[in-house]
Amino acid sequence: QVHLVESGGGLVQAGGSLRLSCAASGRTASNYAMGWYRQAPGKERESVAAIWWSGGATHYADSVKGRFTISRDIARNTVYLQMNSLQPEDTAIYFCNLDDLTVNYWGQGTRVTVSS
After folding, report:
1. Please, are residues 63 and 87 in contact by the beta-carbon 8 Å criterion?
2. Which of 39, 70, 72, 105 has a 20 to 30 Å separation from 52 between CA atoms?
3. How far, in Å, CA of 52 to CA of 33, rounded?
4. Largest CA distance in the chain
5. Is-contact 93 111, C-beta < 8 A?
6. Cβ distance 46 to 84 under 8 Å?
7. What are phi and psi of 89, to 5 degrees?
8. Which residues pair with 104 in a beta bridge?
């Protein structure tokens, strides 16, 4: 079983920055990806960014390319999402995800609100 704990959400003005963290604990497979999804009010959950734990390959949604950066700290089993140039449309609950190719694990979510 994997447990994910997110932190770092909050309220920020447009143009500002936030960094989200997600610490994973528990037994994981040897090959998995961690990432961030978000869900805005009235919208479906969407993928924001992902990183393969082995090798560090990354993937971003087009809407965040050039503004968001996903990274990992292998020793701390933690993934980060650095969010710069935040816009009101980035307002959502952000969920950490771990996909070991058989099971998807989710964090409880952290709220990000960007004011105009």
Report:
1. no
2. 39
3. 4
4. 42
5. yes
6. no
7. -70, -10
8. 99
Q: Is 83 helix (H, G, I), strand (E, B) or coil?
A: strand
Residue length of the chain: 116
pLDDT tens for the chain, 116 residues long, are 899 999 999 999 999 999 999 999 987 777 789 999 999 999 999 999 999 999 899 999 999 999 999 999 999 999 999 999 999 999 999 999 999 888 999 999 999 999 99
Residues whose CB falls within 8 Å of the CB of residue 14, separated by 6 or more in sequence, listed in order: 86, 87, 88, 114, 115, 116
Cα separation, 110 vs 38, in Å, equals 9
